[in-house]
Amino acid sequence: MSALHYLENLVLEPDGKEGRWRDTYWSAFQQMRVPLMLEWGLELTGAWQTPIGAGHGNEFIVLWSAMDISAWERLCAESTGVTTHPDLRRWRSVAADYLHHGTGRLLLESPAHDLTVLGRRASNGGSTASRPVRDEWLYELELTAFAPDGRGGRWREDYWPEFRDRLHPTLTRLGLEVVGAWETAPGCGALDECAFLYRAPDFSAWHRFLEAVRGSTRDPVLRQRRGEMWVWREQWLTRLLLPAAGHAASLLHRELE
Length: 257
What we know:
The chain has helices at 21-39, 69-79, 86-95, 117-123, 155-173, 203-213, 220-226, 251-255; strands at residues 4-12, 42-49, 59-66, 99-109, 138-146, 177-184, 193-200, 233-243. By secondary structure, it is α+β, with helices and mostly antiparallel strands. The protein is globular and about 55 Å long. Helix 1 packs antiparallel against helix 3 (86-95). The protein folds into 2 domains: 4-108, Alpha-Beta Plaits, CATH 3.30.70; 138-243, Alpha-Beta Plaits, CATH 3.30.70. Strands 1-3-2-8-5-7-6-4 form an 8-stranded antiparallel beta barrel, surrounded by 5 helices. The protein has 8 helices and 8 strands, in the order E-H-E-E-H-H-E-H-E-H-E-E-H-H-E-H.
């Protein structure tokens, strides 16, 4: 199964549909955009909104999984220029009522992606083990820009083994699941950028994680990592996410929550 993913950051007009965009956007998204993307070979993996206090209230993150590189090629071809595709023309007309602006990046499988929720599903040929269904998942998106000269330009050789051996087990111990771990594809964003998607089963678990990592942490692994981060990391952005209405149609919700 493909490990290519397409990550969108969408900012909607606050006054879209006279301020009623929350009530109408996601139904149009599920009825029109999801089938259109699936026709091109991209499946909705997840859709999230920024909660109060975590960023812009009209901002959404949407993650798609591409069946192969030809799906990405098709998306690029169909999304630019003049189209005669009737469904795409209809969606563009509807989206114009909502969208203020958006950005997107192609994400490539990292050397640690096989440890993640999505990576394990891909390695199992799409099959997933049964697990209790939850409706309270909290997600966190992390975008990390690494210093190009980190470790003398060899940061990938150092960082990814360290992530596999120390950070992934530590996050699991602290109550977080790593859903995906990618590198941004060349030409699709900042060079030397990685993207991570984490989740916690509820607010209580999220709070316990924050207590463990904030301030002068006592966790020995985290204390050591903080002394090492300057070796790799240049910029770091994290964002708390809650499932949006469109998440109900996603792969994560159907199979992995």
